[in-house]
Amino acid sequence: MLATMISDPTQPVRALWERMNHRDWDSLERLLDGGFSAVWPQTGERIPSRDAYIGLNRTYPGSWTIQVETVDATAEGAVARVRICNGAEALYAIGFYRVMGNKILSAEEYFADMGTPPYDRSEWTEPLAAPVG
Questions:
Q1: Per-residue pLDDT for 111 more than 90?
Q2: CATH number for domain 2-113, candidates 3.40.30.10, 3.10.450.50, 3.60.10.10, 3.40.50.720
Q3: Where are the domains of the chain?
Q4: Model's pTM, two decimal places?
Q5: Which helix (H) or strand (E) holds 43?
């Protein structure tokens, strides 16, 4: 009985990114709790509501695709790593999500541009395989 009451917190987070990739805004809304908010620390922004989060993503400029790379469970929900590409540029997003039941309560998301290392570190590093897409 207990096993049927426990939900997988990775499912709504994976669905969040897949629905954003397909621009399925109505289904995305159903994943987010009514009190949902998000923060983007790297730009010092707080997105105070579910409607604001959806509106911001719906109107984000350009044509982009999202590839979900990993979604793992955490103590409070899930962490996701995704690759976002508009054809000319690509970036990674890392998000930490609080999840209860099948609803995402909050998000803390970080976005990083892909690029070359800032100086020659090849003595200590090796290149990753090039991402597909």
A1: yes
A2: 3.10.450.50
A3: 2-113
A4: 0.86
A5: none
Q: In what order do the strands lie in the sheet with 90-100?
A: 45-47, 32-40, 103-113, 90-100, 77-85, 65-73
pLDDT: is 47 or 126 the higher one? 47
CB-CB contact of 114 with 90 (8 Å): yes
Tell me the three state secondary structure of residue 21: helix
Identify the H or E element spanning 6: none
- 63 forms beta bridges with none
What SS3 class is residue 118? Answer: coil
Report yes or no: 71 and 94 within 8 Å, Cβ to Cβ: no
What gap in Å lies between CA 49 and CA 103, rounded to an integer? 14
Question: So what's the pLDDT on residue 131?
Answer: 57
